[in-house]
Amino acid sequence: AQFDKVVGMVERAKEAGAKVHCGGHAIEGPGYRYAPTVLTNCDQKSEIVQKEVFGPVLPVMSFDTFDDALDLANDCEYGLTSSLFTNNYRLIERARTELLFGETYINRFHFEAMQGFHAGWRKSGLGGADGKYGLLEYLSTKVVYVQH
Q1: Among residues 18, 30, 37, 104, which one has the fewest Cβ atoms lying within 10 Å of its Cβ?
Q2: Distance CA 127, CA 69 (A)
Q3: Separation in Å, CA 17 to CA 43, 68, 139
Q4: pTM of the full predicted structure?
Q5: What is the pLDDT of residue 108?
Q6: pLDDT > 80? residue 114
Q7: Rounded distance, CA 117 to CA 131, Å?
């Protein structure tokens, strides 16, 4: 079911004008494998941008200012993870406080530390239960990872 969901979301994005830079198709052979996919020219209100894909698909959006980037990132109902690549600590601090996501990864391409708390905000996830922080489930805990 999830494989079909990913295929459908990418196909609908392509039909709506998204440009595929790599991937955009199933991988031949046994199993349910989908090629890592990068899309541009996606509309902010499109399903591929607004919904959680849970597949190897990255819709890339352009922006003019950091404020625009924050607005685009926060303009959805979900809030599982966000990522930012910068060496500007002023922007890191703004991202830490203004991005509406349960996890924010800064200058990292791999996710969650094993001892870390894992939970989404808004319509993402079912709460958190990792480590001692699982007891704090009723708070809006935010994790920020910075690597430099």
Answers
A1: 30
A2: 26
A3: 8, 22, 40
A4: 0.76
A5: 83
A6: no
A7: 7
pLDDT at 61 exceeding the cut of 70:
yes
C-alpha to C-alpha distance for 133 and 146, rounded to whole angstroms:
19
49 C-beta neighbours (distance < 10 Å), count = 19
- What phi, psi does 61 have (nearest 5°)? -110, 145
Structure tokens at 126: 């079912």
Q: Quick check: 80 and 105 in contact, CB under 8 A?
A: no
As given in the structure block, the two tokens for residue 119 are 């939970």
> What is the identity of the amino acid at 25?
H
Q: HSE-up of 62 (CA within 13 Å, CB side)? A: 3
Helix (H) or strand (E) holding 6: helix 2-15
Give the DSSP per-residue string, 73-141. HHSSSEESEEEE--S-HHHHHHHHHH---SEEEES-SS---TTS----EETSSS---STGGGGGTTS--
Report the distance separating Cα 102 and Cα 58, nearest Å.
19
